[in-house]
DNA sequence: AACGCTACCGGAAACGTTTCCAAGGCCCGG
DNA sequence: CCGGGCCTTGGAAACGTTTCCGGTAGCGTT
C-alpha cells in the first residue's frame, strides 16, 4: 500500500522533480525525448501522480457534489450516469448524496459538500425544500451551482429543466382526446416549479378544449407510490372518482392503478391513467402505463456541462436555463378502446 | 470562493498554527480554555480545515470506492445507501462507479479508483467478470477490499453474501409444494458464486422431494429483463414450457411474465413464477411477483464495516465472510389456486 | 568575437495541514 | 530554594505536487 513518489522517479532517472512533473503535465517546456524517457520509466515503476498533492497545489478538489432527493427510482440514477459521463472524462470525481426527500438532510448534505471543498454542486430539490436561504448563501458566495429537474424560480442560478408545461398540456390533451371530460390531476408539492408547470399544463389543456376546470380537480400530494394510493382511496371514499387521472409522476400513477384495481375498477376501461417520466417499470405493470418520456441521461450531461463552465471560468458566469424536450409514450393505461 | 486557512485563524488569535490544529484534532495536548477560544473564533471566521491538506499529511484519501454492475434496479442503490450510512459517519467519502455489466469497464473503474488512492474498494462483480487477475493483484498488494453479492470463490478476500443456496432451495420447494413437478431455472452466468448457489438450491430441492432434475431444466442467461424474455421465447418456440419458473432475479422473472402474457399464457394459472431479490416493483406488476427478500441495505452496512476494519487495522486482516439471511415473500405469481 | 535569444532544465517556494521536538512556565517535593 | 517533571505552547519538518524564476548551453547574427 506504499505508493511511489515523483522523487523516487526523479532519482531513478537522475533528473530533477520538475522535469518529471513537466513530463506528466505536458506543458511542453521539456524535450520530447526526455519526456518520453520519463514517461517510460515512470510507467515501469508504476508511478501515478498523487492526486491529493496535486489538488493541494492547484487549489482545486476536482470533486463535484450531486445531491438528489432519492435514488431508488431509476430517474435520478440515470441523470447521475449522465453527469458522470461528462465529469469523469474531465478528471472530476462525483460525490453523490441523497436527501431522502428530507429538508434537513438536504441542507446537511450541502454543508458536508461545502466543507469538503467540492468545486461545484449539482442539485435537485427535495419535495419539502424550503431552505432556499442556504442555497442563496452559496449563490452569493459565487459557488458553482446547477439545479435540475426540481427547482425553485426564486433562485437565479443555472438550471436544467424539462419542458413540463408543454408535455403536461400534451398529456392532458391526449386524455381529453380519448373522450374524457372529468379529469383529476394528482399534483406534486406546489413550491416546486415542476409541480406548478405540470399543473398549469393540465389547466390550460382544459381551457384550450373549453372544458371546465377548477381547484377541486387538482389534488396536491407527494411523489411516492403511497401518495397515489392515498389520494385515490380518498376519492373512492368520497365517491368522487373522475374518468381519468393525470399524475405528476409514474410512482403516483402506479399507486393510483394499484388502488383502483384493488377496489375493482378497470384501467383504462373504467378510468384512464397517465403518468410522467417514463421509468422502465412503466411498461412492466398491468396495464402498461402511458407516460411522458424525459431525457434523463441528457439532463445530467447538460447539468454537468453547465457546471463545468462555471468552475472553469475565471469571471462570473451568467446563469443559464436549458429546457429539454421529451415525447409522449402512449401505452394501454390511457387508451379508451 | 476563497477559503480561510489555519494560518489566518492563528493570526487572529495571536497563537501558533499548531495550537489551532490541536484544537481541531482533540488530541488533548491543549488547555481546554484555549481550545474553546480557538474553536469559537474559528467558527466565527467560518474556518474549516482543508480536507485535502489534511489528507496529504495523513497519507490517506478518506475516499472509498464502490463498484457495482449497474444501478438502475433498486438493489444496488439500496446497498450503496447502506454503505454510505456507515462510511459518511466516519468521515469517508464514497466514490460510486458502475460497470454496465461490462468486464472492461469494471477493470477501468478499479484502475481509476486505485490511481485516485482510495483507501479501499467495495465491489460487486459484473456478470461477465473474468478479470480475476486484477483483483488478485489488489489482494496481493494488501489493498483493503470487500466483495458483496456477486463474488467468485477463487478469491480469498472478505465477502458479504446472501444465503443464496438456502433461499433458492426454499423458493423452489415452495413451487414444488404448489404441486408443480416440471420446473425450469432461469440461471445467471455460472462463474458467479451466486448463480452456482441458486442453481444448487434449485437442484437439491428436487432431490429432497425425489423429483427428477437434469441440466435441461437449467438455462443459463443474464440478469436483465430481456434475458428473461429471450429464454421464455425460446422455450415457447420449442414447445417445451414447464409448469413453473424459478428465476435468478426479479428482472428475468418480469421478463418471463411479460413474454408469457404476450403469448396468451396466464400467470400463475398456466405457469407459476418465482423471482429473487424482491425489488419494490415486484408488488406493482401483474400478477404481483413472489420473490426472495434480500436485506440489501444491511448488506451495504456490513460490507462497509468489513472494509473499515481492514483500512484501520495496521496489520493484515484475515478475510472474513458474512452470510446474511432473508425471507420468502409469496405473492400471486407463484400460487396455484 | 561578442552578444542575445531560445530551448531546456534545476532549485526552491508554495499549497494547508499534522506532528515531532524543543522550550518555557509552573508546581511540588526534597 | 532548587531541581525535576508535567502541562502547554511554538517552531519547523514533512506530506507530494506544481510552478515561478533563474541558469546554462548552443546557436545564429552582426
UniProtKB/TrEMBL annotation, chains A, B:
SMART domains: HTH_LACI
Coiled-coil regions, chain positions: none
Transmembrane region(s): none
Keywords noted in UniProt: DNA-binding, Transcription, Transcription regulation
GO molecular-function term, one example from the UniProt record: DNA-binding transcription factor activity
Residue span, HTH lacI-type domain: 4-58
InterPro entries: HTH_LacI, LacI/GalR-like_sensor, Lambda_DNA-bd_dom_sf, Peripla_BP_I
Protein name as catalogued: Transcriptional regulator, LacI family
Source organism (scientific name): Mariniphaga anaerophila
Lineage start: Bacteria, Pseudomonadati, Bacteroidota, Bacteroidia, Marinilabiliales
Amino acid at each position: 500500500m506504499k505508493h511511489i513518489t515523483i522523487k523516487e522517479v526523479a532519482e531513478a532517472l537522475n533528473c530533477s522533480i520538475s522535469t518529471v512533473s513537466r513530463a506528466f503535465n505536458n506543458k511542453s517546456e521539456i524535450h520530447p525525448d526526455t519526456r518520453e524517457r520519463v514517461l517510460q520509466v515512470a510507467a515501469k515503476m508504476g508511478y501515478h501522480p498523487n492526486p491529493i498533492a496535486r489538488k493541494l497545489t492547484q487549489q482545486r478538489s476536482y470533486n463535484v457534489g450531486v445531491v438528489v432527493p432519492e435514488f431508488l427510482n431509476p430517474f435520478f440514477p440515470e441523470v447521475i450516469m449522465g453527469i458522470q459521463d461528462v465529469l469523469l472524462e474531465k478528471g472530476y470525481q462525483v460525490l453523490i448524496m441523497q436527501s431522502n426527500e428530507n429538508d434537513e438532510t438536504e441542507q446537511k448534505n450541502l454543508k458536508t459538500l461545502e466543507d469538503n471543498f467540492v468545486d461545484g454542486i449539482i442539485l435537485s430539490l427535495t419535495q419539502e425544500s424550503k431552505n432556499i436561504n442556504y442555497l442563496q448563501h452559496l449563490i452569493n458566495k459565487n459557488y458553482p451551482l446547477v439545479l435540475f429537474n426540481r427547482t425553485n424560480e426564486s433562485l437565479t442560478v443555472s438550471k436544467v429543466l424539462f419542458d413540463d408545461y408543454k408535455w403536461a398540456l400534451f398529456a392532458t390533451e391526449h386524455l381529453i382526446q380519448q373522450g374524457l371530460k372529468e379529469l383529476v390531476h394528482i399534483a406534486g408539492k406546489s413550491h416546486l416549479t415542476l409541480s406548478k408547470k405540470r399543473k398549469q399544463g393540465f389547466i390550460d389543456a382544459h381551457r384550450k378544449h373549453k372544458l371546465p376546470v377548477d381547484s377541486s380537480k387538482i389534488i396536491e400530494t407527494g411523489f411516492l407510490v403511497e401518495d397515489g394510493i392515498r389520494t385515490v382511496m380518498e376519492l373512492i371514499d368520497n365517491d368522487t372518482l373522475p374518468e381519468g387521472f393525470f399524475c405528476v409522476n409514474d410512482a403516483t400513477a402506479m399507486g393510483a392503478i394499484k388502488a383502483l384495481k384493488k377496489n375493482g375498477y378497470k384501467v383504462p376501461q373504467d378510468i384512464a391513467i397517465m403518468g410522467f417520466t417514463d421509468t422502465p417499470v412503466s411498461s412492466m405493470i398491468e396495464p402498461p402505463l402511458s407516460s411522458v418520456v424525459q431525457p434523463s441521461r441528457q439532463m445530467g450531461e447538460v447539468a454537468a456541462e453547465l457546471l463545468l463552465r462555471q468552475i472553469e471560468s475565471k469571471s462570473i458566469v451568467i446563469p443559464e436555463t436549458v429546457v429539454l424536450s421529451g415525447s409522449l409514450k402512449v401505452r394501454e393505461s390511457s387508451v379508451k378502446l
